[in-house]
Amino acid sequence: MVKRAAMLSVSLFFSSSSSHLLFLSKTLTKRTCFSSLATMSINLNAHAFAGNPIRSKTLKAHDPLSPSSAFQSLKTHLLQNPETTSLPPPPKSPLFKVLPFRKGRPLASSSITGNNDDDVPSWHLGWISLPDCKYFLGKCGMDLTEDSLVYLGSKIEDDVVYWAVDVSGESRLVPELGSKQFCFVELRTLMVATDWSDSIAMGELAIAGHARALLEWHNLSRFCGHCGEKTIPKEAGRRKQCSNESCKKRIYPRVDPVVIMLVIDRENDRALLGRQSRFVPRMWSCLAGFIEPGESLEEAVRRETYEEAGIEVGEVVYHSSQPWPVGPSSIPCQLMVGFFAFAKSLEINVDKEELEDAQWHSREDVRKALAVAEYKKAQKTTAAKVDQMCKGVEKGQSLSADFNVESGELAPMFFPGPFAIAHHLISTWANQDVPTDGVKAGSKQPSSSILNL
Ligand SMILES: *[C@@H]1O[C@H](CO)[C@@H](O)[C@H](O)[C@H]1NC(C)=O
Ligand SMILES: *[C@@H]1O[C@H](CO)[C@@H](O)[C@H](O)[C@H]1NC(C)=O
Ligand SMILES: [Zn+2]
């Protein structure tokens, strides 16, 4: 599991070349420390990438917004040539909106609402209409076919069906769309730039994550793993099937489950945090690892904790889960399953192949680190960067240097931002919302007090 665990570290947290956290040099007095505690816990309705607003309940096949009906009208639309209007427009067809992706990056735009100087820009998904999509691709000599579009969902109240399309092959689209102030932006950058108190923005992030996961999976599953023949999209791109008539294997989008756990030393009121060598300096987080075949979640928590840090875990308590579509493209969508894990042994023995370091940290130190980290400032700075990219001011995709703003005294440690489940596991424990009497995993539902999202 070493290799995969190493990949996980890249996908879970920022590598040293792209820190997105900022710190203010301020000496904490006891008072500022405690006044920050009140605002320290960031409450979300759902984790980043969960709560997708267009993933509506399954529609009946005859519903015009269902994948099969929408796919039929999509075909009719695409057959229409605006110059030779030989076919009548399809009757009662919903409106189609398309989100183009390039190398895993969704098309985005940015706008500033309000007239104040300190107004922060916010990004939006670059939905374009189906005719515009066809037009832009046509200008680059590319035909838009129904099989290249992937159904994302619908909004009944607006009578809209949403699609994604991968346009990685078309570099000429970049300046074309750039002239309209659209830009392909790394999903991780959008994740950091998203105002987590804005549920509409969080919804857009979830849509982009779902779409990216589906498109990456389409690219990874171009051939049948059974017989090696080409696969073809089915059900408007929601699954695939082998084109070999005597094989016809069905292939479904892939999810890779990962356990992520905050290991707690209840007796001494400490938590175990680890550092990957790829982390930016002073960043610490929860331990995590892929679940192996034939293993329960609790077993995976115990095995990974023992492998990485040599700590034996007893009780395992579920907290929440988070889809994580921002890992490497070879793993289109991880599902982070978050736990509190209560330690039975305390002596740390770090596996240097998997972790650079692991240490017990007191609750007080963790609280202080949470209080000084400027997550909001990092979010606003990133949002401003996305705005500049969309307006053509900022060309580069590398944002690293600007996100490592530090001055004066350094905070001794920091944690991933509120877009990551690790943040919520750590802050929930720091704010004492963890049940003090452990619950045996599986014997009881987690109480609502620990589902502090
Ligand atoms: C698909 O994957 C290949 C190899 O991993 C990569 O080179 C290519 O750019 C990807 N294509 C798209 C459309 O993402
Ligand atoms: C099609 O599938 C059959 C059965 O799995 C296999 O024997 C055959 O080689 C496949 N044909 C091609 C062209 O891949
Ligand atoms: Zn096959």
Architecture overview:
- By secondary structure, the protein is of the alpha+beta class.
- The chain has two domains: 243 residues, Nucleoside Triphosphate Pyrophosphohydrolase; 185 residues, Nucleoside Triphosphate Pyrophosphohydrolase.
- It is built from eleven helices and 16 strands.
- Strands 1, 2, 3, 4, 5, 6 and 7 form a seven-stranded mixed sheet that branches. Strands 11, 12, 13, 14, 15 and 16 form a six-stranded mixed sheet that branches. A three-stranded antiparallel sheet has the order 8-9-10, with no helix packed on it.
- Helix 6 packs across helix 10 and helix 9 crosses helix 11.
- The longest helix has 22 residues.
- The N terminus and C terminus are likely disordered.
- The structure holds 2-acetamido-2-deoxy-beta-D-glucopyranose (2 copies) and zinc ion.
- One of its GO terms (molecular function) is NADH pyrophosphatase activity.
Question: Which topology of the largest domain does CATH recognise?
Answer: Nucleoside Triphosphate Pyrophosphohydrolase
Name the CATH architecture of the largest domain.
Answer: Alpha-Beta Complex
**Average pLDDT reading:** 83
- How large a portion of the residues is in β-strands, by DSSP E? 15-25%
How many beta-strand segments? 16
Shape from CA axes?
globular
State the helix count.
11
Rounded to an integer, what's the Rg over CA atoms?
Answer: 24 Å
Largest sheet: 7 strands, mixed
What are the bound molecules? Answer: 2-acetamido-2-deoxy-beta-D-glucopyranose, zinc ion
